[in-house]
Amino acid sequence: CLTQLCSPPAERTGKVLGEFCRCYKEQYGVALFNSVRYEIEGNGGPQAQLLHRKIPLEDHVIYSGNLFQYIEENKKWRNRFCVVPHNYGLVLYENKLAYERELSPRVLINSAGYKVLTSVDQYLELVNSSLPGVAPKSGQSPILKCPTDFPLILWHPYARHYYFCVMTGKEQEKWRAVFQDCVRHCNNGISEDSKVEAPAFTDAIRMYRQSKEQFGTWDMLCGNEIQVLSNLVMEELLPELRSAIGPRLKGKAQERQRTWIQISDAVYRMVYEQTKAQYDAAMAKCEQERPQMESTIRTDMDQIITSKEHLASKIRALILPKAEICVRNHVQPYISSILEALMTPTSQGFAEVREVFFKEVTDMNMNIVNEGGLEKLAEYMEKLSHLAFHPVKMQSCYEKMDQLKLEGLQQRFDVSSTSVFKQRAQIHMRQQMDDAVYTFETLLHQELGKLQVKDDLCKSIQRILERVLKKYDYDSSTVRKKFFREALLQITIPFLLKKLAPTCKGELARFQELIFEDFASFILVENTYEEVVLQSVMKDIMQAVKEAAVQRKHNLYRDSMVLHNSDPNLHLLGEGIAIDWSEEYSGQQESEPDVDRRRRAKQVVSVIQDDEGVLPYEVGTEGLLSPGSPEPKEPDPGAAPSSPDSVEGIREALAEEPLTNADVPSGANAQHAPSPKPRANAPAESRVPHATAASPTPIAEALSAPAGTSCFQPSDKETGEEVALLGTECNPPQPMSTTESGEGVQTEF
């Protein structure tokens, strides 16, 4: 099937990217103008009271531990040691010893766009819906069977899926929190540091989708730019692929489902590679033209602003009356309902952040009273300093956003899902927690030089805690009000644009003649039109948020309430060198060797301990292949033992050999290519998740926000799965290249 479809995916990808790159080039000039204007004029809001940490997770890993992974190539469950580094990639090693010996990882996964599932039934429902009409009949084995009652599945609408399981419910909850934090971070993958490229990209995505009559929110605005563009292409390509290939798939239902997943993943990789090449070329061209464009902007800034205001006045005279009527009839009656739906869970989440921070500091203070000593303080502060990045402790805060429901408003305003708002609020929660912790430890570190006795230390901690909580209340109010305004605009503006399109869109072409040719790269009729529409509803949104603050129902400060900086030197302290509590106060003078430091890498989340004793995870050193050592022989696939269903069964099976999943059809194994030669140091290309930027202009702020270099220390680049892509002959997809007997590396987008 794919042999006949190699050309259409490439053609469709080229067509979509061609249209997108045209939009991107237009938006790049507008974003550059807005950035330079913002730099010159400035438009800062209230000054933050809390300090902001520049590199929060330097030399730390989020979590590491053992779990089982299902290997599709040989239908077996294998023991894996998983490390989650500071860039939130999932790095899977053969075992802990392989990690400590700096051998190549088995798998590198970037989880952008994935969903974390803890039920096989949830997974089967998604798989069945991805290929309509193909589902196992009653009594037939499903596509996946888990040997324990505690699965963890990473599902993606286009890319390959990953299957894990653990032994206890406690482990499952911890890993679920870790995986969800990885997804949340990787989804937010467009750099905040980019003040031109990021708003240009997100605006270009929005303009492209609106040209296809898609005005609502988009769930797959996930990951970095290449991933988002690949999702954009797959959104259009996949239905055609499904209708062309689906009827031709042969075999049992689960075999067809498995084949479809492999085909979708193979096409996604083809699209990704083509997208990366085309997007990089478009970026390079814009960067090449940037110096000349920026020179023109700085020279003619006043004339450009005057020309834009003249254009806006003409569009406003035509559009604003129609827009205001539409707002009055279709938007204004629902603003308060939308705001209330957003405020309740968000404010509860931020209140929980405050409570968790208060409890952690108070518990630390009580323990210092009982145990005493600066060494204990250093131990507790080392843990507290990364509280915001502790997925399990922060889970109670994040869970508050699960209550967000827009009910009938979701259909009225074409909001496909609330996930974009949930994740954005959760990211704000994590940032506010880290700001509060960093401010606390900076003030405490300053205070330590003045202390004489232990009682003074406890009183100082309490006094600093109270100061930081006041700053947190002010900053969290500012952040929440901004979030509410942006969310309301993100919901209502697309709805208004869709409503006004039939009567207003056709009138815009005649305004093009009002723009001087020299300024056409920096002023677009379409963008100016959207700014006019935004102005029509902005007053009502600002008034609604202001009234909510006056009521003090959700602990919001009024706009007139400005907290003056009571610590004039505090922000200077925040510019200093990061505090290393363990090194400064633990009394350890000698530095650890690199190997020992790696073995005892600072970890945010402690490893879970099983109450029943040691889990049967670790394999002996004889199971660890050294570079160049001969491969162990794999069991005969024709004589696969039955798959244990209980915890006791899996423990017994692990003592002898890896698990096999006898219930899963093994027909796919018949066409396996020969195993590649082991490569202990196989390179792994990586890419890194970043945070999403906000444009300095209101329309971009409102509409554009989306809700390893080596195996041992993944770099700040995103990881991409290293597999053989389909060649020019476009052979049918084989199971992915890495086999369990080799040292090759699987990586994921």
Main beta sheet: 10 strands, mixed
> Terminal Cα separation, in Å?
24 Å
Gyration radius, in Å: 28 Å
Helix percent band: 40-55%
Strand content: 5-15%
Examine the coordinates and then state which fold CATH places here, giving the name of the CATH topology of the domain at 61-134 and 142-187. PH-domain like
Question: What is the fourth-level CATH superfamily of the domain at 61-134 and 142-187?
Answer: Pleckstrin-homology domain (PH domain)/Phosphotyrosine-binding domain (PTB)
Family: Belongs to the Niban family.
Protein name: NIBL1 protein
Biased composition (Low complexity): 637-646
Region (Disordered): 616-749
Topology:
Elements: H1 2-5, H2 7-41, E1 60-71, E2 76-85, E3 90-93, H3 96-100, E4 107-109, E5 115-117, H4 120-130, E6 151-155, E7 162-165, H5 169-187, H6 197-211, H7 225-245, H8 253-299, H9 301-371, H10 374-384, H11 391-398, H12 408-412, H13 419-448, H14 454-504, H15 525-551, H16 570-573, H17 581-585, H18 594-599, E8 602-603, H19 647-656, E9 659-660, H20 698-704, E10 746-747
Parallel strand pairs: 1-8, 4-10
Antiparallel strand pairs: 1-2, 1-7, 2-3, 2-9, 3-4, 5-6, 6-7
Helix pairs in contact: 2-6, 2-7, 2-8, 6-20, 7-8, 9-10, 9-11, 9-13, 9-14, 9-15, 13-14, 14-15, 14-20
